[in-house]
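Q: Okay, next protein. This is 1D-myo-inositol 2-acetamido-2-deoxy-alpha-D-glucopyranoside deacetylase from Corynebacterium canis. I've checked the sequence twice, so it should be correct. Can you predict the 3D structure?
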Amino acid sequence: MSDLVGARVVAVHAHPDDEAITTGGTIATLSERGAEVTVVTCTLGEQGEVIGAPYQGLVRSDQLGGFRIAELEAALAHLGVRHGEFLGGVARWRDSGMQGDPANDHPSAFIHSGDTAVQQLAEVFDRVRPQLVITYGPDGGYGHPDHIRAHEITHAAVAGSSVQRVLWAVTGAADLRRGLDAIIEPPARWRRAAAGEIACQERVDLRLRLDDAAYAAKVRAFAAHATQLWVANGSVSRVNPEAAWARTADIEAAPLVYCLSNLIAQPLLRYEHFQLGWGTPFSAGACPMEGLSW
């Protein structure tokens, strides 16, 4: 199906892997339907931790950011994205880390990007002329300073642009609860999430079910980010040679299980969720592009 040929979308994300976690299936769906999707990544994700023993030296030597460029490129290819770029160029802005991290004080930390980052993103919008922009809500999804900053610069750059709608990627609370409940047995050494430990939103304006192709593309994108994401489907890589398996009771609620470096077992949901952040409204159950003109 190519009903979205001519449509243009920009997804603004803070770090490599964010595009896969919160919007991977949506990006794959829009790309498959003919939309031109551009992913703007604001930092290299230098402050991330590394899953798996072989590549721990990337963190010690401050080489993780460069390594993650290749992971991002592979993930975008799996999602059908032909246009990926770093805000202001490669390594212009650095991962700020969580609130209180010493990385907050780095002069190139994204939280210090000011009006320069707004102008850089506005230039992307002027060049691409997207109808739809996807980013995070005011809390950044889970409070990360770089995610909050991505929200701020996106809404500042939208002013005076051709953008017709801004969507905020969120995790829907109802689907998350169902997915967590469906995990019968997490992998060895992984742990279950404590109540309220995974950020989510009760309000969901758009709930997009991923078809098999989009879901498979999202899983492949997760696998590409092997330093950051571990899918419990038995797969291994040179970064993480250890296989993991999980058992779930409901393959619709939790087809697969994954974790970050914190080893908290999470459902790799069949659904992606959004709130309307700004612009043209849409009906329940709509396509993200519904009601937009191109």
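A: Here is a summary of the prediction. The two ends are 17 Å apart (CA to CA). The CA atoms of residues 54 and 238 lie 8 Å apart.
Q: Noted. On to the next one.
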